[in-house]
Amino acid sequence: MSERRWRLRVWAAVMAAVGVMFLPAAALASPGGSLKTGTVRAWGDNNFGQLGDGTTTNRTTPVPVVSLDRVTAIAGGGASGYALRRDGTVRAWGRNSSGQLGDGTTTNRTTPVPVVSLDRVTAIAGGGVSGYALVK
């Protein structure tokens, strides 16, 4: 699997593995303060709550992922989203049919929930119905 890197002049650097969908439509650090607040916005398909805005309504413009700040990295897999926070913890939301959100359930989540028993994380990734974390 090859790797592509893009630097978005307005928002933040985003790294995506070719062939892996990182969020169902897209997500990005919000402009004008992403380094300070680390907020995330998402848009597109939202059938499983993968936009993290508390609904299952599809969005044609970016909406904030609710209750999420101090984010340093984002990833996605299938219809799930993952966020790495500055404190080394991970939040997840969206489809959870195989437990890929790591919250101990198989319940879809329309807002971010903590991934249980996971801290000191330095990197995250998602693919299909699985989430991955690199732990110190």
From TrEMBL:
Keywords: Signal
MF annotations from Gene Ontology: guanyl-nucleotide exchange factor activity
GO cellular component: cytoplasm
InterPro entries tied to this protein: Ran_GTPase-activating, RCC1/BLIP-II, Reg_chr_condens
Any matching Pfam family: RCC1
PROSITE patterns from the UniProt entry: RCC1_3
Signal peptide positions (record): 1-29
The protein, known as: Regulator of chromosome condensation RCC1
Lineage: Bacteria, Bacillati, Actinomycetota, Actinomycetes, Frankiales
